[in-house]
Design a protein that fits this description.
Layout lengths: L6 H17 L18 E3 L4 H12 L9 E3 L2 E3 L26 H12 L13 E3 L26 H8 L1 H17 L20 H7 L53 H10 L31 E4 L4 E4 L11 E4 L3 E11 L2 E8 L3 E6 L3 E3 L23 H6 L2 H9 L35 H5 L4 E4 L3 E6 L4 E11 L4 E8 L4 E4 L11 E14 L8 E6 L1 E7 L7 E11 L7 E9 L10 E4 L13
Length: about 600
């Protein structure tokens, strides 16, 4: 698959695709951010992110990541796994069972599609601290959590802050949201198959709903190119794996179909089947060693499904050999069923196959590959086999008639769209369900993601801040330290909107609503290694906040205000700063207020639910 794109390039491409895609969806805009606009959170990005995020997701989908409720300033923060219901529409259970897990590969693929396994923004190096990854519609972090993250009060709730700052809580909340989508059937969603949480195929509608249960993600949406699957009856996204049938190129070598050409379920399932290659220096899934082929053993078995692999198309001959005119030309990626063979003719090995388009015939072996061939090389997670909804089967095709979706949408999805229920196991058609082969998580690993943080604070507890008419604004400094271990998340809130905290160098529009302090036992990368620069890291990380005034929104005169910095996890008492603030009037037009220390010595460089 080649070397992966750089972190920043991948995130830029993802953001561009998401923005274009999101702009086409009703309700998918900045209104999801709430009336107060987006929150600004800092977070920590793991350096060995592939192995660690794999483990974190494995824990979360089994309810082993966060197992207790946090209490912060009288608020209860509960991101514990709620479990799953199961069963068909007629036999659906009513009590969620926490022993039933979300298939890990589903959420791993969702996180890849949502964020490329990045918790921080593109400016944050792996192993560094900085702004959390935030989308245009205020999805935060790895899972791009949007539900419950709207800013309607000006300050984040404790839950919003910990989801936006701490990777494990972000993952746990994302898994809860996916589980809620599953549990919303049959009241508000259709059911795939028998509603078996262990069956990958039965998650189709829950996956669709994670991104919004909209017609834009319907496989028969006329805006989607029917050829995007590369000849497969049920398309899946290639996830940039050249071996995938949907990885089709133009004559100039460009991709015919990219991320935005596939529905959300096609993207998620596609990256489950074709996980990204493990980047250099990371540890992911390694395919088991395959025994050497038996000399002379046939490549295929009768009844096996194979795929056509060719640049354009390959002729289906009525008999082995090239003498007779072809019955048709089979396109790259088309599925065929092996009927017999092998037969040697004209220096080639031929197989008798059956195609949906041209019936039975013969194809040279060099143009056939196994459909279930194991992934080559290390992958970020274990590849999974599954069957997408096959719209050539009448029972399935009937469920996906666009009129069924439109009728259900018109009813507000009440009743759960029973006409859209479809079978995922049809033995007489050779259709069966598949399970996730990822091993169970080790519950003791959760402790390594929680650590034992203890926050302390250095700074005055009282301050006089002034906004002068010439645009100069004074500030006071508070340093947040973690004298314990690992990630110490915290929330920042104030009694008035014009008392704000930010870092030196931040833009005047950024205010820190929450952040992290890292224990000294953990290396924090401050400069990533490049061709011209070495990797630079330090022991731990202290968050240095400048508390200042937003003169543009502050009324003139003298006012009293309070700012709180509250630990969200572990030990430490909240920090309370009492401020007497005076605004002498608006600065000159075009002047940017500059925060300074209390003695006026100028400090340069300051700066929805679907």
């Amino acid at each position: 698959m080649g070397r992966p794109l750089t972190r920043l390039a991948v995130l830029v491409a993802l953001a561009a695709a998401a923005a274009i895609y999101g702009a086409s969806l009703p309700g998918r805009d900045a209104r999801a951010c709430g009336s107060g606009g987006p929150f600004d959170f800092d977070t920590y990005e793991l350096e060995q992110y592939v192995a660690r995020y794999n483990t974190a997701i494995d824990l979360a989908v089994e309810g082993k990541a966060v197992t207790s409720v946090l209490s912060v300033g009288g608020e209860q923060v509960d991101v514990r796994y709620q479990g799953l219901v199961k069963g068909s529409r007629a036999e659906r259970t009513t009590t969620a069972d926490t022993s039933l897990r979300v298939p890990p590969s589903i959420y791993k693929s969702i996180v890849w599609v949502e964020s490329n396994w990045s918790n921080g923004s593109g400016s944050v190096p792996w192993g560094g601290v900085g702004p959390v990854l935030r989308s245009f519609d205020c999805g935060y972090g790895l899972g791009q959590v949007t539900s419950g993250m709207a800013n309607n009060s000006g300050s984040p709730t404790a839950k919003q802050a910990v989801v936006g700052t701490h990777l494990l809580f972000n993952i746990a909340e994302g898994v809860r949201i996916l589980a809620d989508k599953w549990n919303s059937a049959p009241k508000y969603r259709p059911i795939a198959g028998n509603g078996d949480p262990a069956a990958l195929e039965d998650w189709y509608y829950a996956i669709w709903s994670y991104n919004g249960f909209a017609f834009s993600n319907h496989p028969l949406n006329p805006d989607r190119d029917p050829l995007r699957g590369g000849g497969e009856a049920s398309p899946v996204y290639h996830c940039y794996d050249p071996s995938a049938p949907s990885y089709q190129t133009t004559s100039s070598g460009g991709l015919m179909f990219g991320y935005g050409d596939f529905t959300y379920p096609e993207r998620v399932y596609g990256c489950m089947r074709y996980p990204p290659s493990t980047p250099d220096g990371q540890q992911g899934w390694t395919p088991p060693a395959q025994p050497p082929p038996v000399p002379g053993a046939p490549k295929f078995e009768v009844g096996e499904v194979a795929l056509i692999r060719v640049d354009d198309c390959v002729n289906l001959r009525p008999t082995p050999g090239k003498e007779q005119a072809p019955k048709g030309c089979l396109a790259n990626g088309m599925e065929v069923t092996v009927l017999g063979g092998p037969v040697a003719a004209e220096d080639l090995v031929w197989w008798n196959v059956r195609s949906a388009l041209y019936g039975d015939g013969w194809v040279a072996e060099s143009f056939l590959v196994k459909k279930s061939a194991p992934a080559q090389g290390p992958r970020m997670w274990m590849p999974q086999e599954f069957a997408m909804p096959n719209l050539t089967i009448p029972l399935v095709a009937a469920a996906f008639q666009p009129a069924n979706f439109e009728a259900c949408e018109d009813a507000g999805f009440a009743g759960g769209c029973p006409a859209m229920d479809f079978p995922t196991s049809i033995p007489e058609q050779g259709v069966e369900t598949h399970t996730d082969g990822t091993p169970a998580a080790n519950p003791t690993a959760a402790a390594t993601f929680l650590g034992s943080p203890v926050l302390s604070f250095a700074g005055a507890t009282e301050a006089n801040l002034v906004a002068y008419v010439d645009g100069v604004v004074t500030s006071t400094t508070v340093t947040v330290k973690n004298t314990g271990t690992w990630i110490g998340p915290f929330r920042v809130r104030s009694s008035v909107p014009w008392l704000v905290a930010r870092h030196a160098g931040d833009s005047s529009t950024r205010t820190v609503d929450g952040g992290v302090a890292i224990g000294n036992e953990t290396e924090v990368v401050t400069q990533k290694a490049t061709a011209s620069k070495p990797r630079v890291a330090q022991a731990g990380y202290e968050s240095v906040l400048l508390v200042t005034l937003d003169a543009a929104t502050m009324p003139t005169g003298t006012h009293q205000a309070t700012l709180w910095i509250e630990p969200l996890l572990g030990g430490g008492a909240p920090f309370v700063l009492t401020v007497s603030a005076t605004n002498h009037g608006a600065p000159k037009p075009g002047t940017t207020p500059t925060p300074v220390q209390g003695n006026r010595a100028i400090a340069p460089g300051l700066s929805a639910d679907r």
